[in-house]
Amino acid sequence: MFRLCVCCLLLLAAGQLSAQEGAAQRLGEKKPLPSPEQLIEQLSSPEYAQREAAGRALGALGEAARPALEAALRLPHPETRLQARRILELMDEGDFDRALDALLADDAGGPDHALPGWPRFRSLVGRDLASRQLFVLMLRAERDVLTAAQEGKRAAATQLQTRCQQLQVESTADQREIPAGSLATVFFLAGDEQLPEMPGV
Predict the structure, then answer these.
(1) Is residue 201, in this structure, part of any structural domain at all?
(2) Is the dihedral of CA 126, 165, 177, 96 positive or negative?
(3) What CA dihedral angle connects 90, 92, 97 and 98, to 10 degrees?
(4) Contact (Cβ atoms closer than 8 angstroms) between residue 187 and residue 149
(5) Which residues contact 133 (CB under 8 A, 6 or more apart)?
(6) How many CB atoms lie within 10 A of CB 119?
(7) What residues make up the domain containing 151?
(8) Which residues, including other chains, have CB under 8 Å from residue 129's CB and lie 6 or more apart?
(9) Same domain, yes or no, for 196 and 136?
């Protein structure tokens, strides 16, 4: 009788151990991560928490998610398009900040930096630390104007003229100095002989 009880207890313990091992294995199994396309679908979920989780996951994927995010800009659902655009803007902003950090850290004059206006600025002003700091200040203040100047001279002239008027109005209305980065950008671009002449600049 005693032997029978011991056998029953051993069988019961073995069953519990087996069940625990099975549960541990199930806990250890990792679910496959959703693809960028699956996460894009979740951006239009009626549940806010699921939309936010999908947005964070797409942002964490970084460049691997870019093709799916760019494709999502053409989807019919407005919430999906809006979220995809927001994530892409955050990714681009992160890339831009990293590019500026790389320029500031480049004491050795390493590979060229793909920043709008940098080749002309470097040839005119130089590339020592003070010059690089000034250029970063300009880009942070007037990135759009410098980008326009690199992409097309006529459009850049119009945008620069508009920006000069904005800065003048802002400084007069608020009675404050024009930011140094903005002022340096105006002088830098106004001295570009390839830009069409702009009255008042």
Answers:
(1) yes
(2) negative
(3) 120
(4) no
(5) 104
(6) 13
(7) 116-201
(8) 104, 107
(9) yes
Of 66, 39, 65, give the one whose Cα is nearest residue 54.
39
Residue 193 domain flag: yes
Residue partners of 64: CB distance under 8 A and separation at least 6: 36
Is residue 106 situated within a structural domain? no
Measured in residues, the chain has a length of: 201
Q: What is the DSSP letter of 128?
A: S
Contact call for residues 84 and 40 (beta carbons, < 8 A): yes
DSSP E strand stretches across the chain: none
Cβ proximity of 166 and 133 under 8 Å? no
Q: Determine if the pTM surpasses 0.90.
A: no
Helices (H), 126-196: 129-151, 153-174, 180-190
Inside any domain, residue 143: yes
**Segment 79-125, tens digit of pLDDT:** 899 899 999 888 888 888 888 999 999 887 766 778 888 988 999 99
Total domains, the chain: 2
Alpha-carbon distance of 102 to 123, in angstroms, equals 19
| CA dist., res. 39 & res. 186, Å (int) | 43
**Best CA proximity match to 76, nearest among 44, 105, 108, 103:** 44
pLDDT digits (tens, 9 = 90+) for 131-145: 999 999 999 999 888
